[in-house]
Design brief:
442 residues; alpha/beta; five-stranded antiparallel beta sheet; 14 helices; 18 strands; zinc ion binding; ADH_Zn_CS; Glutathione-dependent formaldehyde dehydrogenase; NAD(P)-bd_dom_sf
């Protein structure tokens, strides 16, 4: 699949309109760094790579002080996102200290702490002017995405050449194009552990709740209780949801969500028909259903077979459950990272029930990150450190991917430190070794 996608993209050439150089050029000093690279399906490797150089006036070079694995990185790990190439540097959630600035950078200085959005926005196109940074028209040259979707998302860090081929942040250094636009300065009263997740998981989960229109009094269902789903549950409650039904099969995740007031849980490994159970609990159906899960874990034999035979890339099972579970004229929000095509999608129910089926899209981080930082994190209304289960060193990224994929030892969100990281903040996990974790799968 990767070879075919890369060949197609190479044949079509770059899509016109991109204003960003995505080629990796080494720093003239010859400095080296550690970085996590993709080597093939289920195969990643920490390698010694060149520190990147500034290539355009508005570039910033960042010393990474914190990075992490996102659940969507597992799609890359398993080779399910197209246009991956050997030695691509992965990672799209990271923060750090400004090390170098290009001559066109006006608002950042060397030594400043910043968090970086997972998307690369130009700051000038019609979407960027509305802070819809994930939809930037000018930073992704993927002709393959243009052909498949009709338009292109913004370029993303560390997420294959389908999103521009930009080296990612699971590394000790990163080049950030349009640094003034894509870096958010972090005040001294906010720790790295609280700031890091402004890069993706916090704006993404918030966007799902806001874009799907969760409002005071709504009954909300959340499918998938990884970090995005756990945050979505909390955002829904903060927006006034009267009740949340949280659905997963991992006991530790169900327990985490179930401890919250107004939250009931459903273990789908024990409940054969989730929509029927929800309609029993909520006669008439949910007001909103939020799909915060994954497309790469089919439940039924039918979809396991179709994926294995490459008859579909994604599975519609969760989406169909959401559609059945909402009331007539209810809303379904899709924030799970679907990639392409699925079979047996219940489009008839969407039409007949008048369901508002909303593709939330990749979250426009710039639209929300200042609000989340100032109105929720700094005020104490939302403390993102609840989801950090472990802290490891960058050297153990290979082992971490395998453990994260298996959900070993209750792993949830992991803070990955580099040689530039500050010590762990009070109340946050201390450094541990992945190999010392229990083999228990939760």
């Amino acid at each position: 699949m990767q070879a075919l996608a890369n060949a197609a993209q190479s044949y079509m050439g770059p899509a016109p309109g991109s204003v960003v150089e995505n080629e990796y050029k080494p720093d003239p000093s010859g400095r080296k760094m550690k970085a996590l690279t993709w080597q093939g399906a289920d195969n990643v490797k920490v390698m010694e790579c060149d520190v990147p150089a500034i290539t355009q006036d508005k570039d910033v070079i960042l010393k990474v002080t914190g990075t992490t694995i996102c659940g969507s990185d597992l799609h890359l790990y398993h080779g399910e996102i197209v246009a991956l190439q050997k030695n691509d540097i992965l990672g799209h959630e990271f923060m750090g200290i400004v090390d170098q600035v290009g001559p066109g950078v006006k608002h950042l200085q060397k030594g400043q702490r910043v968090v970086v959005s997972f998307q690369i926005a130009c700051g000038e196109c019609r979407y960027c002017k509305q802070k819809l940074s994930s939809f930037c028209d000018r930073t992704n040259d993927s002709s393959l995405m243009q052909t498949m979707y009709g338009q292109r998302d913004a370029g993303f860090f560390g997420y294959s050449h389908f999103t521009g081929g930009f080296p990612g942040g699971q590394a000790e250094y990163v080049k950030v194009p349009f640094g003034d636009v894509n870096c958010l300065p972090i005040p001294d009263d906010v720790s790295d552990e609280k700031a890091l997740y402004l890069s993706d998981v916090l704006p993404t989960s918030y966007h799902c709740v806001v874009d799907t229109g969760v409002k005071e009094g709504d009954v909300v269902g959340v499918w998938g209780l990884g970090p995005i789903g756990q945050c979505a549950v909390r955002w829904a409650l903060l927006k006034g949801a009267s009740r949340v039904i949280a659905i997963d099969c991992v006991p530790a995740r169900l327990e985490m969500a179930g401890k919250l007031d107004k939250v009931d849980t459903i273990d789908f490994s024990q409940v054969k028909d989730v929509p029927a159970k929800i309609l029993e609990m909520i006669p008439g159906g949910l007001d909103c259903a939020l799909d915060c899960g994954t497309f790469h874990e089919p439940k039924s034999l039918l979809h396991k077979a179709q994926k294995a035979l490459m008859l579909e890339t994604d599975v519609p099972e969760t989406a169909n459950e959401c559609i059945r579970s909402v009331r007539k004229m209810g809303r379904v929000g899709l924030i799970a990272a679907y990639a392409a095509f699925c079979n047996q999608f219940n489009i008839g129910a969407v039409m007949e029930k008048g369901v508002r089926f909303i593709g939330n899209g990749q979250a426009p981080v710039h639209l929300y990150w200042e609000e989340i930082l100032n109105d929720y994190i700094r005020t104490g209304k939302f403390d993102p450190t609840f989801m950090i289960s472990h802290r490891v060193k960058i050297d153990e990224f290979e082992e971490l991917y395998a453990a994260f994929d298996k959900r070993a030892a209750g792993v949830n969100k992991v803070f990955v430190e580099t040689k530039f990281s500050a010590p762990p903040s009070e109340g946050c996990p201390k450094v541990s070794s992945v190999k010392d974790w229990t083999d228990k799968v939760l």
